[in-house]
# Entry
Amino acid sequence: MKYLLYISLAFFATVSLVGCKDDEEEVLENPGTFSIYFENQVDGAPMVLDTAGNTNYRYTAANGQRFNFSLFGFYVSEIKLEGPDGATFVDPMNVSADAASVKGYYQVLQSNPSSSTINLANVPAGKYNKLTFTIGINEDGVEEGAAGGVLDPANGAWFWNWNSGYINFAMEGTAENSPQPYVDYGGGFVSYEKTYNIHVGGWKNLPADSTGTQNFVNNVKTITIDLQTDVTVKEGSSPMAHITVDPMKLINESGLDFSTTYQVHTPGKGQPFANKLSSVFTLDHVHE
Amino acid sequence: MAGMILLLGSCAKNEPLESKANPYKFVVPSNFPQPTYTFENNPITEDGFKLGRKLFYDGILSIDGSVSCNSCHQQALAFADSRQHPLSRGVGDRIGIRNAPSLTNLAFMPDFFWDGGVNHLDFVPLNAIESEVEMDETLENVLAKLNANSTYRGLFKQAFGIDSITSPYLLHALSQFTAMMVSANSKYDKYVRNEGQTLTEAEMQGLQTFKSKCSSCHSGELFSDFSFKNNGLDTASDLGRGRITEQISDYYKFRVPSLRNVARTAPYIHNAGFWTLEEVLDHYASGIVHSSTLDPSLQNGIQLTQQEKDNIISFLNTLSDYEFVDDERFFNPD
# Structure
């Protein structure tokens, strides 16, 4: 067997050497890395989290309502880089029960600084000027069944049992105008007074029924970022796209009134937020 | 090269063993559609199936150990609930809002529960485990209990090669057990597959009437088109499919259930509103309550003579699969 392996290796080595001679020089370059850094901000300043139920209202929305954040985060998946000369990188995706085999799904949490940076490896050398990614987990991630890692509900994944699927984007905190009373659900589960929980989920994109009604709201959104420059990816350099994520834009553009909208837990109720998500993600700059 | 040939040779030698009837191999009955379950992500093995079975019968999934899957899904009733529990009964005798359905042929279904809110068999047990009127437990705590149990740690290691039990493997084990619950050996199946079984005259006439008056919804060999319909019940408390889709046009609609083993799965309808098949047929014949989402096919009810009702019930009894309810593979191992 070993002998056979050596023969194969020698054969492939010869073929690839021959192939290289005919190819353009660019193809010879080794792949590099590309990182995406999500910086969560509120009105242009780094986001500060407060503990759940804390009534220190450090932020004020355009409508004058005061609030804070105790949780903020989102899923990122389907990352793709494209360049002006045809260079393309598609982040490999995989759903598996084995946490180590789950690929291409990321949960960015304000409470976990290390989750803010996504490091893409094996990006083909070349120039890139466009970044796209999905906020949320679409049907490819849900239809495969139970999964591990950031998709494991017992490991912090945001999962809806009753209308199965993942929460794409979530923000929680306390708001002066929220009518939420204190509720003790038992087992350590508590809703504090004046809290809000905005969970934007919904992925089902099923065909319309016989009456033509499209029965599900799909809140999984694709974000496209113009990198505003041609970023060179090559071995040894580590370019990074610094993306700012400002939910104040979402709150203001969706006209969120905490006195009426303070518990959002269905795709339909989440739709007004999902529809404004693209304005939340903007390019700050690119480090070469 | 010699090693290669030897290896191939040993594979070939093993083949007869592989093809020998393996009771833990998923087999699609010849009269059934193709399965929907993602077996490629979770291939059934004897160890995985038996682990799922042990979990199915174990109260460890519930907060106080008092409720197992089997509490509401009993094999003698094709894994439906009994008339003693018309609505599901959880920990502390808490009562649910719907009748626990029969668990058969789940590997062929497009989605789950009376409202179809769950898209994949793996995600079904999460609802029972975490519902406060069912097991009232958290997934995290179930895993903590399983990881603290050396027997379960050993069984998960054996089935999946893992040292620490995580939720996808728990759910995969349960799916291996429930996906195998294929009921396809009723009198009707043996008749329709030409296996030498005949139907009586009443059963045949019932089948004909069923085909002309019931099969627009209860279609195919699973006896459901898996759509959601408002079938004219006088209930306004449970939105059914409307809770999932958030569309007023779906209010009070519920899954058209499969009718396999229906003679064993009383009471009937999502709210357990009917005790017998006679009552169900009487409802369709003369009890339809009109509302804006009532299914168009039921506007005038389904006209049935007493003879037709009797014959339909004779036919429905041919859907009882006694081999399935007696299948030792599904027995409680402990």
In short: The first strand of chain A starts at residue 32 and ends at 42.
